[in-house]
Amino acid sequence: MFYKRxxxxxxxxxxxxxxxxxxxxxxxxxxxxxxxxxxIISPCVKQTMRLIARSRNKDGSEEGIETxxxxxxxxxxVHGNQMDAHKRVYVACRCTADGEVSITVQDEGSxxxxxxxxxxxxxxxxxxxxxxxxxxxxMSMDEVCFEQGGAVVYMRKKPxxxxxxNMKS
Length: 169
Known about the structure:
The protein is α+β, with helices and mostly antiparallel strands. Helices cover 25% and strands 24% of the residues. Strand 5 and strand 6 form a beta hairpin.
C-alpha cells in the first residue's frame, strides 16, 4: 500500500466520473493490494476511512461510505475471487481537496452482469439472506458503476467542502 499526493488529477486513473473532476484539484490517494481473506476487510476499511476523515468534512455520509466499501470488498473476495487465496483484490481511494471521494475495487474474477442482480426491495426478495451489497453501495454513494465485465466497481461521493476548506495534514 502507498499514499500518493499530487496537485494534478490524472484522468485515466479516475474511472467514468473523470469528466466531473477538475484537472487541477489537489488529491491524496491510497492504493492497497489485498489477499483474498475476509479478515483483511476491517483493517483495510479502517485505514481507508482514516484517510477519508482527514480529507472530507463530516456530513453524516461516513457510515454510508464505509458500508459501500465493505460491501465492495466482500463482493470482490466472495463472488469475484470466489475466496481463492491465490487471487488478490486491488483498492484505490482518492480524496480531493474539495471533499470528493472516489473508490475503485478490482478483483481477479471473471466478472458478472450487474443488470441481472435481483432487486432486494422487491417483495419476493425481501426474505433472501444475500444480495443486498450492490443495493447498499448504490444507496450510500452518489455514483456506482461496474467496468471490465463487473470485475471493477467504481464508486464516488460528491465534494462536500465549504469555501476555503483544505485537506487536513
